[in-house]
Amino acid sequence: MKQGKRPTRRQKQEIKAAGLVMDNWLVERDTHTQLVLINRYSNKLRTIRRGA
Fold first, then answer.
1. Roughly how many angstroms between the first and final C-alpha of the chain, as a whole number?
2. For residue 2, what pLDDT is reported?
3. Which long-range contacts (CB under 8 A, 24 or more apart) does 38-47 make?
4. What mean pLDDT comes out for the span 20-36?
5. Rounded Cα distance, 49 and 39, in Å
6. Domain coordinates of the chain in residue numbers?
7. Which DSSP string corresponds to 18-38?
8. Is the pLDDT of residue 9 over 70?
9. Whole-angstrom Cα distance, residue 22 to residue 12?
10. Residue 39: what pLDDT?
11. What mean pLDDT comes out for the span 8-24?
């Protein structure tokens, strides 16, 4: 599993729009179609799909 990175401003807005608390999530992977997040505390993955 990759190490998570701190989200950018745009990514924070997407996390908040998905109904998640942005302080609890790190960005594991960012592609054109999805944003894969990893929880800071439980290491669970969550995927936010983007409309392409």
1. 26
2. 77
3. 38/1, 38/2, 38/4, 40/4, 43/1, 46/20
4. 96
5. 17
6. 9-49
7. TT--GGGEEEEEE-SSEEEEE
8. yes
9. 6
10. 97
11. 96
